[in-house]
Specification:
The protein is mostly helical. It contains 8 helices and 2 strands. The protein has a single domain, classed as Up-down Bundle (Ferritin), CATH 1.20.1260. Strands 1-2 form a two-stranded parallel ribbon. One of its GO terms (molecular function) is tRNA 2-(methylsulfanyl)-N(6)-isopentenyladenosine(37) hydroxylase activity. Pfam families: MiaE.
Amino acid sequence: MSVSAPEDIVSFLGCGTPEAWLRKAAAELPLLLVDHAQCEKKAASSALQLMFRYPEDIELSTRMSKLAREELRHYEQVVKIMQGRKVSDRKQTASRYASALRDCVRKSEPYRLVDMLIIGAFIEARSCERFARLIPYLDEELATFYRGLLESEGRHYRNYLKLAKERSPVDISDRVTYIREVEADLIRTPDSEFRFHSGIPA
């Protein structure tokens, strides 16, 4: 059954996931699951870091607390699937995607926070888009699981973007456009390592 990512997410991203990445993912499901588990842990960690860095922002902290709990539940669900398939969790090297997006973050506040929130929105939007695009390539168990993640990933994207807009002293459209171009370039260009958010397999 074909599933599409929400229209606002498709239009927010600068490009769709290339078919070459989807074919590679279907052929490397154990590695995909390991990195998916890593992504869920990193998402929870990023949310907690924002809570610690900006404790005075109660709305931000409350939303990040909920998001971190949800991401950790997703991690537990991925691990359960991995255990059923005899796939062992292991350390992963940092992905090109995450490192390059972090390089976009400005140093001074409130722009540092705004950039981190925009980047969070892009990561969640890309995850949602990839879950949807992957479904036709997957077995029934994984397809059902990824279909179930679409709503939460879309909600996380919208929460990040809303928080960024509310905390920026200026319109964020130009900043979103800039980061969109960086993110799309990472997705469309060759990548030496296969990861959940990697580019075209080299």
